[in-house]
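Consider a typical record:
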Amino acid sequence: MTSPHDLAVGSRRHFMATSAMSLGSLAFSWMQQQEALAAEQTKPPIGPQIFDNTPKIPAKPPQAKAMISLWMQGGPSHHDLFDPKPEMKKYDGKEFPGELKQDNKAQASSKVFASPWKFSPSGQCGMELSELLPHLQTVADDICLIRSMKTGVNNHGQSIRALQGGRITGGRPTLGSWMTYGLGSEADNLPAFVALIDPGQLPVLGVENWSNGWLPSIYQGTVIRPTEPRILDLTPPAHLKGMTQQKSLEFLEQLNSQHVQQFADVSDLQARMASYQLAAKMQLAATEALDLSQETAATKKMYGIDQKETADYGSRCLIARRLIERGVRFVQIYTSNQLWDSHGRITTLLPNACKKVDQPSAALVADLKQRGLLDETVVHWGGEMGRLPVVQNDAGPAKIGRDHNTYGFSMWVAGGGFRGGHVHGKTDEWGHHAIEGVVNHFDYHATLLHLFGLEHDKLTYRRSERDQTLTDGQPARIIHDLLRA
């Protein structure tokens, strides 16, 4: 029997006796909560999953519907193009006063290298851009210039992987693959993800730049070559055209369908069937989309197709616009291997690289805008790194260059919800480290997906009992300052 002393206020027995019903309610609530959490956990799909490129509705209303990425492989020098540091003139040729993270020790020096090119305010926004980019100056009010990019890994391969696939490790899906996995495509007769390669060389990492990684192979980029035939094996030989080809494809479809029924859980079989079906549709659609003869002389001149230096890159930028118009989701245009990797002869190599891409890149922005497409199309321009503020290869003015820098560099974006005429972020007085408004590669990815109505931590693919994402658990954040109000 419980004594009055045992039930004295403040005693443990008093608490238990008077709270018995409350504790029971608390336990019941806890059990309900645990059951609800268990119900919310990701459950493995029942039966085989079907992967395709049919249009998908994003989680939130999107501002952007398509993207064209102008990939400047090698590392454009932000010091000489986007991020003026006039105070460095006082120290030109003198010893750099701080610490440097140099990649090429054999040719390293610590002599400050102030940019030999002039900068001037451009557009109504007054954005300062280099004289090497006269055409970009004309669209300054439409671009958002980020001067505080960072990956923090000084080698080309790792930094490419960070910006293209979210991590410095290989084997991951690239941005275009994630986009098409999450959104599909508006076009059913053209690839969802297209890679327009350079006639010179493939970029560093080659096909890894448009790889689907461990996503189903239907999300791999389709290569369009810079010369005819732009897509290999697309056009059948004369003796197979017409009814012969149609009957052959129908029979192949029959065999493939039977095979898929036996191996329903192998997504590569589904992807292969989809690729055959797409190839048949592309025989007409791709031929038409890649035919620049349909464009006016004024448009071709705008892109620089009438000039030797810009003809190739201008053609590919114009093709990109035509593909986006026809519902393709993601197009990436590559420059050749290490075009921007100016370890030496920067005073020659950098102007040549700018001459190749400046007019076509600016024309793409202006053309999309005049056609009413820029508001829903993101245009990206940039590479995997910038350059250091000191001389590399100190063997005379004609031979000097700059080493790698991934701790603070520049790139620009336009359209699709990004702020036009805006400069974001800041590097230190030497242009070495990003110090204000830092945009890590994973922040850029989170912001980009946000504009497409996707949540970076919710766009997942189940692999090895783990939900994989583009940002992969990194502290990614949406950089709202980059976005149009």
Remarks:
- The chain has one domain: 66-234+286-482.
